[in-house]
C-alpha cells in the first residue's frame, strides 16, 4: 500500500502539469456596452461570464499611454505566426513585439496572456509542448526588451483551439500562432 502511494503522487503531479497548461480559459471576445451618461467610465457587465466581465472592465480602462501613431498598427496586431515545427520568431514579428514591449513598459498595470497554438499534426503531448515553446519565445523576447515577467503569462493550447478548421497547408499556417491577449489595461487604439 505504501508503494502505491509513492507511485500515485508522481503520476498525479504529471497529470496536473499536463492538463494545467490547457486549463486556462481564453478571454472571451465581447463588445462592451456603455451605460449612463459618462462614456468610458461605466460598463454594463450584466449577463456576462466572469472572464467576459473582466474583459469588459479592462476595455473600459484602456490606456493611451505608450501608444503612438507610429506603433498603432503594430499594437493592433495581436497574433504572431510560426513556421512548421518551429518556435523561432520571424523578422516580420519583431516590430510588432517591440511595440507591445514599449506599451507594457509604459503601462506597468497591463497584463498580457501569450497563448501558444499549433496545427493539427502531431500528438497532443507534442503539440502542447510546441505551443508552450512558442509562447515562451514571445515571452522571452518581451522580457529581453525590458517587460516585467509579472506582466506576462505564457499558456499552451496545442492543437486544441484552431482558428481555421481546415485540413490543408493554408489552415495549418493560420493555426501555428501565439495570440497576445491583454487581460488588464489594453492599448487604446482609437
TrEMBL record:
Residues 1-22 form the signal peptide. Keywords: Cell cycle, Cell division, Cell outer membrane, Lipoprotein, Membrane, Palmitate, Signal. It is found in: Cell outer membrane. PROSITE patterns: OMPA_1, OMPA_2, PROKAR_LIPOPROTEIN. GO terms for biological process: cell division. It is a lipid-anchor. One of its GO terms (cellular component) is cell outer membrane. Residues 69-186 form the OmpA-like domain. The Tol-Pal system is composed of five core proteins: the inner membrane proteins TolA, TolQ and TolR, the periplasmic protein TolB and the outer membrane protein Pal. They form a network linking the inner and outer membranes and the peptidoglycan layer. Part of the Tol-Pal system, which plays a role in outer membrane invagination during cell division and is important for maintaining outer membrane integrity. PANTHER family: LIPOPROTEIN YIAD-RELATED, STATOR ELEMENT OF FLAGELLAR MOTOR COMPLEX. Belongs to the Pal lipoprotein family. NCBIfam families: Pal_lipo. This is Peptidoglycan-associated lipoprotein. It comes from Acinetobacter larvae.
